[in-house]
Amino acid sequence: MTTPGDSAAEIWPLWEVFVRSNRGLSHVHVGSLHAPDETLAVRNARDLYTRRSEGVSVWVVPAAAITTSDPDAKGAFFESPAGKNYRHASYYSKSEGVKHL
Amino acid sequence: MTSTITPDTSATAVISVEEQQFNDLIEADSRIEPRDWMPEGYRKSLVRQISQHAHSEIIGMQPESNWITRAPSLKRKAILIAKVQDEAGHGLYLYSAAQTLGATRDDMTDALIAGKARYSSIFNYPTPSWADMGSIGWLVDGAAICNQVPLCRASYGPYGRAMVRICKEESFHQRQGFEILLELMAGTEEQRQMAQDSVNRWYWPALMMFGPPDDDSPNSAQSMAWKIKRHSNDELRQRFVNMLVPQAAVLGVTLPDPDLHFNEETQQWDLGEIDWTEFHEVLAGRGPNNAQRLQRRRDAHEDGRWVREAASAYARKQSERSEMAAS
């Protein structure tokens, strides 16, 4: 499957950028960029996505290395939890008013 | 009054499952993502809008970079550099968003430097005085924010997300511009005159940034149906002027529209006639600086060629070296 934004006409590969905004938090996807190699990808990501101290750590991943679920099958693929609302605490309403539950 | 309702035949036309899914997502005010099916018109319209927007950010660096070496203090110089750097960043966010639709960076760059792509006409006006740095921030970036805040909710996910980042940064741009004008207005008579003269030159072009009037805006209706655009050109222009009037009072500048007056009935500021001939002239490439802006962009692209080539060569050598080490 082709990666959105990737094309034979692009001379540099596409990288996805993830930024950890603070210690204790996950790296979150912030966007993408093109760069010739991983060293420059990290530097460009710093300049492009952390000009206002938005992060303490940056990951770059070649977009081509990411495997995604099939978009055409999204209904079926995520079907399993549907109708299983007993997996949520809010399903159990009889204990309403009881403290520390 | 009675009227006959023509049956809507389009509703009975057979549409594909994908198209129905797309319509449902738009209807539910959800977002379209890169791998989703989308109508060709939607894709084209987005590529056109996002790439024009990206080009505007890139060309938009020029009127201000002009003043970096002549900024009145080190502080102002640092601020101006940060702002111009932001604009480069905004261009990149937007080019990336357009690339998720299958447009390539090379094609977009080529279209720009060949003069085939459009960018906001506002950047074809000259910046002869320091006060123009103030007016650009206050009026041009102010108008841009007015336009861009609703775009954060655009139906295409990557565009909306890029706009969220951009809007956050634009508010610094607008405030620093306002402050430049405020300081000039608190200065000598000459400085006040410089500020007023600059506002006089930028006010109308800033109002034209919202695009032609609603009854002359061919793409608007479809863009609004697709929820790319959320408000009409005239609506946003009106909103902008309503915000400007009290801000102008704080600055002590006069907005150069003798017909501007408060309408008690609508509780809005009614503005005078806009000279759309000028807008179309600049759009057609006959503005004061069109040729110069494009020439500089072309030169910069040529001058940067060796950097792009060197980076590619270095990356190639590095990967060859690591392959050799692995074997």
From TrEMBL, chain A:
InterPro entries: PaaB, PaaB_sf. The keyword Oxidoreductase applies. One of its GO terms (molecular function) is phenylacetyl-CoA 1,2-epoxidase activity. Signal peptide: none annotated. Keywords: Oxidoreductase. It comes from the Bacteria. It holds the Pfam family PaaB. Its EC number is 1.14.13.149. NCBIfam families: PA_CoA_Oxy2. This is 1,2-phenylacetyl-CoA epoxidase subunit B. It comes from Cryobacterium luteum.
